[in-house]
């Protein structure tokens, strides 16, 4: 019997084709080797599996449901639209799926502290939640621009007991938060674990985070078959680093008849610095310890990026997404700020679901696609998070439109 895709990728050195690997300072080679060794031991350990299953069911609230968006479907005309409701996962996004597991891993490694970066704040909130649950110290690095933009999540992190460290260099957004967190981890790796917030970074993190997030895809596949007696024609998710996308793609990656679409942020233009569409406009390069497709300036350095969605304004993308795109297994689509804003309000007013701005990118593209398809076709969107964190920013900068019903 042939092995599934997830069993064969990545290879032993953490490469998906030519993408991935671990390009790290010598001082971190042993710590990362220990992380990989302990993860490989734990993933097959019945006690670890049972603990994670208990936490997901009795604390996180899994499985999250799939909702048929009947009003949105009628509004768009065409294909039936469904939503995988990761916004109903505890803390309001998919991030807790890997954070709980990473903190369990940190405890097994004997660490007393977890460190992470965050953009929109959802990963920071999720890690702070997991650290509180398991009794570890937590430090979150966040760009100063995002701290001001995502104030509700900053407050949540502090209430949960986390220390929030502003990244005040460069553009003061997600890349700079990663820089800052990685620098702190280098200094404290003996007592801390850098809990990377997406399918990026050096091996084994792209593999680990994917495997922890694959619960989204496995649930979705079973739920959709139960609802529709078949698989969706299209599965759509937003992509920054790509954790929510690879999570839901994992459930359908061996089903060639299912079209997998990652939606990148076009921001407010195609010029460098106006968007964060790495797969669309980037080229191969190494950043933050892994080889992937990244947006680069003329000197080959990470280029400035922008998106209205703070969680997806990253100048690279997970190496597995680069690989899947390169072999034609996934499609890449674009959504600009205005389309995301329109989708944010449309979903809110038609379905009573306020999406995260990041997730609104996937909703916006799905709305356009649905209108081009027949009523016999189906679209499943990974609604990766809820928009509580975005409402102050939205009403201050994008006035609430008249109701669409």
Brief overview:
The protein is α/β, with parallel strands linked by helices.
Which descriptors would you attach to this protein?
single chain, 405 residues, alpha/beta, Rossmann fold, 2 domains, 6-stranded mixed β-sheet, 4-stranded parallel β-sheet, 14 strands
Topology:
Layout: H1 5-8, E1 15-16, E2 19-20, H2 26-42, H3 46-60, E3 66-68, H4 70-76, E4 80-85, H5 96-108, E5 113-118, H6 122-134, E6 137-143, H7 144-149, H8 151-159, E7 163-167, H9 174-188, E8 192-194, H10 205-228, E9 234-238, H11 243-249, E10 259-267, H12 278-281, E11 283-287, E12 290-294, H13 319-326, E13 330-336, H14 337-351, H15 357-370, E14 378-383, H16 391-397
Parallel strand pairs: 4-14, 5-6, 5-8, 6-7, 9-10, 9-14, 10-13
Antiparallel strand pairs: 1-2, 3-4, 11-12
Notes on the structure:
The chain folds into two domains: 10-57 and 95-205, 3-Layer(aba) Sandwich (Rossmann fold); 62-92 and 214-397, Rossmann fold (3-Layer(aba) Sandwich). Strand 11 (283-287) and strand 12 (290-294) form a beta hairpin. The chain has helices spanning 5-8, 26-42, 46-60, 70-76, 96-108, 122-134, 144-149, 151-159, 174-188, 205-228, 243-249, 278-281, 319-326, 337-351, 357-370, 391-397; strands at 15-16, 19-20, 66-68, 80-85, 113-118, 137-143, 163-167, 192-194, 234-238, 259-267, 283-287, 290-294, 330-336, 378-383. With 405 residues, the chain is of the alpha/beta class. The model has no long low-confidence stretch (mean pLDDT 96). 44% of the residues lie in helices and 18% in strands.
């Amino acid at each position: 019997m042939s092995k599934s895709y997830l069993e064969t990728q990545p290879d032993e050195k953490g490469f998906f084709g030519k993408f991935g690997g671990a390009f790290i300072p010598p001082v971190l080679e042993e710590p990362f080797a220990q992380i990989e060794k302990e993860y490989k031991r734990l993933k097959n350990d019945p006690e670890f599996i049972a603990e994670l299953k208990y936490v997901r069911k009795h604390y996180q609230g899994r499985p999250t449901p799939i909702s048929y968006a009947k009003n949105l479907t009628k509004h768009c005309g065409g294909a039936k639209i469904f939503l995988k409701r990761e916004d109903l996962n505890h803390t309001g996004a998919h991030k807790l799926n890997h954070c709980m597991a990473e903190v369990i891993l940190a405890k097994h490694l004997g660490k007393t502290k977890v460190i992470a970066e965050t953009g929109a704040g959802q990963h920071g909130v999720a890690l702070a939640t997991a650290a509180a649950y398991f009794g570890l110290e937590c430090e979150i690095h966040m760009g100063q621009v995002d701290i001001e933009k995502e104030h509700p999540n900053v407050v949540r992190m502090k209430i949960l007991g986390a220390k929030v460290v502003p990244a005040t260099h460069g553009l003061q957004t997600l890349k700079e938060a990663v820089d800052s967190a990685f620098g702190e981890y280098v200094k404290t790796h003996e007592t801390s674990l850098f809990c990377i917030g997406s399918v990026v970074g050096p091996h084994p993190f792209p593999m680990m985070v994917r495997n922890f997030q694959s619960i989204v895809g496995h649930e979705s596949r079973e739920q959709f078959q139960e609802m529709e007696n078949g698989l969706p024609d299209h599965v759509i998710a937003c992509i920054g680093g790509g954790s929510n996308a690879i999570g839901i793609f994992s459930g359908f990656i061996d089903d060639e008849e299912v079209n997998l679409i990652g939606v990148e942020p076009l921001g407010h233009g195609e010029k460098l610095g106006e968007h964060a569409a790495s797969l669309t406009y980037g080229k191969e390069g190494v950043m933050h310890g892994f080889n992937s497709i990244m947006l680069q300036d003329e000197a080959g350095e990470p280029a400035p990026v922008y998106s209205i969605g703070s969680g997806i304004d990253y100048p690279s993308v997970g190496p597995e997404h680069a690989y899947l795109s390169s072999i034609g297994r996934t499609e890449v689509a674009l959504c600009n700020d205005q389309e995301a804003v329109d989708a944010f309000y449309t979903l809110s007013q038609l379905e009573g679901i306020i999406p995260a701005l990041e997730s609104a990118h996937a909703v916006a593209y799905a709305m356009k696609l649905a209108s081009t398809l027949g009523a016999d076709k189906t679209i499943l969107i990974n609604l990766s998070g809820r928009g509580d964190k975005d409402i102050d920013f939205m009403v201050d900068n994008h006035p609430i439109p008249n109701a669409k019903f």
